[in-house]
Design a protein that fits this description.
Blueprint lengths: L8 H19 L2 H8 L3 H5 L5 H21 L7 H14 L1 H9 L9 H30 L9 H11 L10 H14 L5
Helix pairs in contact: 1-2, 1-6, 4-7, 5-9, 7-8
């Protein structure tokens, strides 16, 4: 009997990310993941009972890192520099935002374990959202951002800018720069 190839949680997460971005949620399977990792499906089932559990664990891991990175931003910098850092961070984790939209809302089983994972994910989303909301409110109070525009609309615009399909052929970084310019300065010459 051949020995099973060793792989780490990071290997599983990295391959899960790649597969979700290339084939999507519906076509993602443990068989496809096992093939990509060059291991048996049984090896993956030792870690996870189903794909939703794996995907939520992966997303929670990424969201914890994203919240940690958000807290490490230079909040003492000039407000516009802070906005640039925040926008770059959101684009850095844009795949996680896109993956979260792939997962059907009714996919969470009644298992207590999955309910806990969904709740943990919601707590992380809330922490991230609240920090951005505070940032936008501060910008409005200090006159950096128009206070006539609802803060939630600004937040939605920023977050959903990462989900705009890239049909331009621009690099992720250049695309983020242009979208940031559009959000901050508009498209009209004044």
């Amino acid at each position: 009997m051949a020995r099973e190839k060793k792989f780490s949680t990071e290997d599983i997460y990295e391959e899960t990310h790649q597969l979700l971005m290339s084939v999507g949620y519906d076509k993602f399977s443990f068989g496809l993941l096992a093939s990509s990792l060059n291991v048996s499906r049984a090896a993956i089932y030792k870690y996870y009972t189903n794909k939703d559990e794996l995907i939520y664990d992966y997303m929670i891991s990424e969201m914890e890192q994203m919240v940690d990175d958000l807290e490490k931003l230079d909040w003492a910098a000039d407000y516009f520099v802070q906005f640039q850092q925040l926008f770059a961070l959101i684009f850095e984790y844009s795949d996680i935002h896109q993956i979260s939209f792939m997962i059907p809302g009714d996919r969470i089983a009644n298992e207590e374990k999955m309910k806990e994972k969904k709740q943990q994910s919601q707590v992380l989303h809330k922490r991230f959202f609240e920090q951005i909301q505070t940032f936008i409110q501060t910008g409005q109070q200090k006159g950096h951002i128009k206070n006539t525009i609802p803060e939630n609309l600004i937040i939605e615009l920023i977050f959903h800018s990462v989900t705009i399909p890239n049909r331009t052929g621009l690099s992720q970084e250049k695309r983020a720069d242009y979208l940031q310019e559009i959000i901050c300065q508009g498209i009209f010459n004044k």
